[in-house]
Design goal:
Blueprint (H helix, E strand, L loop, with lengths): L7 E7 L3 H17 L6 E4 L38 H8 L2 H7 L6 H12 L6 E2 L2 E7 L11 E7 L5 E11 L4 E2 L11 E3 L3 H7 L7 E5 L3 H13 L4 E5 L12 H4 L4 H8 L3 H11 L9 H17 L4 E4 L2 E9 L2 E8 L4 E6 L1 E4 L3 E2 L4 H4 L31 E4 L4 H4 L9 H35 L1
Parallel strand pairs: 1-2, 1-6, 2-3, 6-17, 8-15, 9-10, 9-15, 10-11
Antiparallel strand pairs: 4-5, 5-6, 7-16, 12-13, 13-14
The structure holds dihydroflavine-adenine dinucleotide and NADP nicotinamide-adenine-dinucleotide phosphate (NAP).
Dihydroflavine-adenine dinucleotide (FDA) binds next to helix 1 and strand 4.
Protein name: L-lysine N6-monooxygenase MbtG
Family: Belongs to the lysine N(6)-hydroxylase/L-ornithine N(5)-oxygenase family.
GO molecular function: L-lysine 6-monooxygenase (NADPH) activity
């Protein structure tokens, strides 16, 4: 579909990753239930087609959540968009069950997302980067809407659409260490596969990976397997890789109910979520991957063929690009330094959470903030604004400070996008009732 200039929608979604895909499905299922007066929606995605962290679709990397935490099941267990329906449609349901494993590969989950997306193409426009959200100019056709500016990434043209509600879901922001600039041989993990293939792998004789999270472990393993001729250096600040806690009690922090405990909790309660359970997700690695890396290193010791090198308690002090190589200055915590020349270095140094400030631009001054400078957000993920701004601005992501650890993860997207859909539908009903009441009053005035 192609949203036209000046069209007006009940909902405009910015970004079409899993979060807004789940929202689009939720709105579609609402329509299927009521049949009349559909909620009109348009989603804009800057990529040319659907893609979920494509540059990290490494062979055999597995999901970090159960297949039941798909786009819909926790909101609507009988949805036709579930992972189980996908398996059934592929003729693979029995085979999947025979595996007796809750965790599909990321590649299979990506196929599932693409399968679900293929039923939603009527609401999404690709190659479309949203560049601004604005209040409408005085005298505009839709004064109670915000105006969304969309740039076509293929020809640079711009169009504007109006929205009663905006749902910002632009995802995580790759994070590089201060002073390190990305380049031909200096990559962030979010661009890994594209850069790897561009670099002509056979020529990569020495590579380094920085970080001790899941991305770093997966890329280190990938390099070691795919480049049998290469020296592989793993550089990380900790003593060793730490395990991701996915045991049942800890896993409860990803339950929908935990959002309420976090949202309505006091400061010490929220702080305890992070203090005790950060290791469920951040800077940690799946048990199987840790063991695989250790086994590789052990086998190399046994066979005197060492080419996987761990530089623990070490940080990268500087990187200088030098033609097709990068010179990396490493510094151990005890201050000892050492230089490394590599053909490529990957910074698997994580992501910053989504921050809508830049997109909001001038509109941000209508959005209230708390004492620590974070946006205030209602339980149903709506930015709290001053009364002048009557449109709903919702966030999918970037609400770690109000809604907790699941804010940027898949675990809760089915429930969260359902809550946002409900809020939008309720808001529209209230708007329609208010308009009808105003009409009645106007008619009564005229006839009096
Ligand atoms: P996501 O980042 O997926 O999508 C945002 C979209 O917005 C992108 O497609 C982007 O192009 C688009 N966009 C950005 N700015 C735009 C603009 N201005 N205009 C238009 N479009 C714009 N979590 C989990 O629970 N289980 C898991 O297994 C994993 N696995 C995983 C693997 C890897 C490699 C990473 C990096 C992360 C995960 N995660 C995860 C966490 C991850 O955040 C989560 O899986 C989803 O990507 C969240 O979906 P969203 O739609 O919110 O963001
Ligand atoms: P991450 O968990 O935030 O890990 C980043 C790592 O980089 C940490 O070890 C961190 O160390 C280190 N680091 C940060 N700055 C550094 C610096 N300047 N020098 C050296 N090291 C530095 O990031 P991630 O591994 O990319 O994971 C992000 C999200 O994606 C997580 O939710 C993860 O589960 C998910 N993911 C999932 C899959 C999958 O589904 N298979 C694959 C990859 C990622 P400190 O902790 O000391 O800061």
């Amino acid at each position: 579909m192609s949203a036209r200039n000046n069209d007006t929608y009940d909902v405009v979604g910015i970004g079409f990753g899993p979060s807004n895909l789940s929202l689009a499905i939720s709105l579609e299922e609402h329509h299927a239930n009521v049949l009349t007066n559909p909620v009109t929606s348009a989603f804009f995605e800057r990529q040319p087609q659907f893609g979920w962290h494509r540059n990290m679709l490494l062979p055999s990397a597995t999901m970090q959540i159960s297949f039941l935490k798909d786009l819909v099941t926790f909101r609507n267990p009988v949805s036709r968009f579930s992972f189980v329906s996908f398996l059934h449609a592929q003729g693979r349901l029995a085979q999947f069950v025979n595996r007796k494993d809750f965790f599909p590969t990321r590649q299979e989950f990506h196929q599932y997302l693409e399968w679900a997306e293929s039923s939603m193409t009527n609401v999404v426009t690709y190659n479309s980067s949203v560049t601004a959200i604005r209040r409408p100019p005085p005298g505009a056709e839709a004064p109670d809407c915000v105006q969304i500016e969309v740039r076509d990434t293929t020809d640079g043209s711009t169009r504007r659409v109006n929205a009663h509600n905006v749902v910002i879901s632009t995802g995580l922001e790759p994070r590089m260490p201060d002073g390190v600039v990305r380049g031909e041989r200096v990559w962030h993990s979010s661009e890994f596969l594209a850069q790897y293939h561009r670099a002509q792998p056979a020529q990569l004789k020495s590579v380094a990976v920085v970080g001790a999270g899941q991305s770093a472990a997966e890329i280190t393993k990938f390099f070691h397997t795919q480049l049998p001729h290469a020296q592989v250096h793993a550089v990380f600040p900790s003593y060793g890789y730490s395990i991701a806690d996915d045991t049942p009690f800890a896993n409860q922090i990803f339950d929908a109910a935990a959002v309420d405990d976090y949202y309505y909790g006091d400061d010490p309660t929220r702080e305890a979520f992070w203090r005790y359970h950060r290791n469920t997700n951040y800077g940690v690695v799946d048990n199987a991957d840790i063991r695989a890396l250790y086994q590789i290193a052990y086998d190399e010791d046994v066979s005197h063929t060492k080419r996987l090198h761990f530089h623990n308690q070490t940080k990268v002090k500087s990187v200088t690009a030098d033609g097709h190589t990068a010179r990396v200055l490493l510094e151990r915590l005890d201050g000892a330094q050492r230089e490394l020349g590599v053909d490529a270095i990957v910074f698997a140094t994580g992501y910053a959470t989504m921050d809508p400030t830049h997109l909001l631009g001038d509109l941000d001054r209508y959005c209230l903030r708390d004492e620590s400078g974070h946006h205030r957000v209602t339980r149903d993920y709506r930015l709290v604004t001053t009364p002048e701004l009557t449109c709903g601005i919702y966030l999918q992501g970037g609400t770690e400070h109000t809604h907790g650890l699941t804010s940027s993860l898949l675990s809760n997207i089915a429930v969260r996008s359902g809550e946002i859909a409900d809020a939008v539908i309720k808001g529209r009903t209230e708007r329609e009732l208010a308009a009808a009441a105003a009409q009645v009053l106007q008619t009564a005035d005229k006839s009096a």
